[in-house]
Specification:
The protein is an alpha/beta fold. Helices cover 42% and strands 19% of the residues. Helix 1 runs parallel beside helix 2 and helix 4 runs antiparallel to helix 8. The structure holds 5'-O-[(R)-(carboxyoxy)(hydroxy)phosphoryl]adenosine and zinc ion.
Length: 336
C-alpha cells in the first residue's frame, strides 16, 4: 500500500490568515482568521495585514493541525501561497512554511494564489472534467481561465482596469457602505429591483473586461440623485445595490458565455471571493441551463481566500514532483 500524502498549507496573501490540512486530495481542516482591523480604514492596510498575520499564524496553523486529527509527524509536505499578493503579508506565510519544511525535513511547495482559486473546484467529490473554463473573480483579479489539467492553465481573458471585487467594493463605498462592501451589496440587493436603475455597459472587444466605466457611471448617477434629494441613496439602497450587482454580473456572464461559445468548452466553473455573490451564482446556473453547460460552484468557504485551495493545488504539484527550493522568494506580482 502506498504511503498517504498529507500536506499542510498556508495562505497569507491579503487579509485572511488561513491554514489547512489535506490528505490524498481530501480536505481535513480549513481554518480561516479574517482580519477585522481594516474595516475602519475602508480597505486593507498592508502593514496592519502583516502584523495581524504574525499574530494569527501560530494559532491558525495549530488549530488546522488539531482539527485535521493528524500530527506534525504525519506531514509529508508544506505548501504556501508564494504569489501574488501583498509582499509583507506573503512573507509571513512564506517564512513560516519554509521554517516548518526545514524543521520537519519535508518538501516545500510554492503555490500561485490564482491557480489555487481555480483548483478550489477540484475539492468537492463532484469535480469538473478537463478541459474546463473558470471565471475567477476576486478583489485583485478578474480572469477567464482554460484549465486543461491541474497544472496547465491559460488565461484567455482578464480585466484591463479594476477587478470585479474592486467594482463591488468601490460601488459600495459610493453607496456609503463599509469595506469590504461586496457582501453588503449582495445582502441589500436581495430586497431590491435589479432593473430599477441602468448603469453603463462597457464595450470591450474579445474576452477582456473593464469595470472603471461602470464605477464612473454609478458615481455620476449618485451625484445627480443626491443633488436633487439628499436622502436619495438611503431611500433607494436596495434597488441601487440590486442594479449595481445586476450590471457587474451581466458583464461577467456576457464574457463567460462568449468564452464558452468560442472554446466549445461546456464544463464551467467560478472561483474567487466574488463567486460568493448570490446574483453571480444564480446567473451562472441560469445561463448554464440555457447554454447546456455543466456548472460547478465552490462552497462559500472555498470561494474567498482560504488555505484548502492552496492545499489541493499543493497536492497536484507534489504528485507532479513540483517542489520548491527553500530559497524561493515570495512575489507580489502575478506571473503565471
Ligand atoms: O478572493 P478574495 O477573498 O480575495 C482576493 O484574493 O482578492 O476576494 C475578495 C473580494 C472582495 O472584493 C469582496 O468584496 C468580494 O470578494 N466578495 C463579494 C462577496 N463576497 C466577497 N463580492 C460580492 N458579493 C459577495 N457576496
Ligand atoms: Zn483570492
Amino acid at each position: 500500500m502506498s504511503v498517504p500524502t498529507t500536506i499542510l498549507a498556508i495562505e497569507s496573501s491579503c487579509d485572511e490568515t488561513s491554514a489547512a490540512v489535506c490528505r490524498d486530495g481530501r480536505i481535513y481542516s480549513n481554518v480561516i482568521a479574517s482580519q477585522k482591523v481594516h474595516e475602519q480604514y475602508g480597505g486593507v492596510v498592508p502593514e496592519l495585514a502583516s502584523r495581524a498575520h504574525m499574530q494569527n499564524i501560530v494559532p491558525v496553523v495549530d488549530a488546522a493541525i488539531k482539527q485535521s486529527g493528524f500530527g506534525l509527524k504525519d506531514l509529508n509536505a508544506i505548501a504556501f501561497t508564494q504569489a501574488p499578493g501583498l509582499i509583507g503579508a506573503l512573507l509571513v506565510g512564506a517564512q513560516f512554511a519554509k521554517s516548518l519544511s526545514m524543521a520537519l525535513g519535508v518538501p516545500l511547495i510554492a503555490v500561485h494564489h490564482m491557480q489555487a482559486h481555480v483548483l478550489a473546484n477540484l475539492i468537492p467529490e463532484r469535480k469538473p472534467s478537463f478541459p474546463f473554463l473558470c471565471l475567477t473573480v476576486s478583489g485583485g483579479h478578474t480572469q477567464i481561465v482554460v484549465c486543461r489539467s491541474p497544472l496547465e492553465l491559460e488565461v484567455i481573458g482578464q480585466t484591463i482596469d479594476d477587478a470585479a471585487g474592486e467594482a463591488f467594493d468601490k460601488s459600495a463605498k459610493l453607496l456609503g457602505l463599509p469595506y469590504p462592501g461586496g457582501p453588503l451589496i449582495d445582502k441589500y440587493a436581495k430586497a431590491g429591483n435589479p432593473q430599477k436603475f441602468q448603469f453603463a455597459e462597457p464595450q470591450i472587444p474579445g474576452l477582456n473586461f473593464s469595470f472603471s466605466g461602470v464605477k464612473t457611471s454609478i458615481l455620476y448617477f449618485l451625484q445627480a440623485g443626491t443633488a436633487k434629494d439628499p436622502q436619495f441613496i438611503q431611500d433607494n439602497l436596495a434597488d441601487l445595490c440590486a442594479s449595481v450587482q445586476e450590471r457587474i454580473v451581466s458583464i461577467l456572464i456576457g464574457k463567460l458565455r462568449r468564452a464558452a461559445r468560442e472554446t466549445g468548452i461546456r464544463q464551467v466553473c467560478i472561483a474567487g471571493g466574488v463567486s460568493a455573490n448570490s446574483g453571480l451564482r444564480n446567473a451562472v446556473q441560469a445561463t448554464g441551463k440555457k447554454e447546456g453547460w455543466e456548472v460547478f460552484i465552490p462552497a462559500f468557504e472555498y470561494c474567498t481566500d482560504n488555505a484548502a485551495m492552496i492545499a489541493i493545488t499543493g497536492y497536484y504539484k507534489l504528485r507532479a514532483g513540483e517542489t520548491a527550493e527553500l530559497s524561493i522568494p515570495a512575489s507580489a506580482r502575478s506571473e503565471w
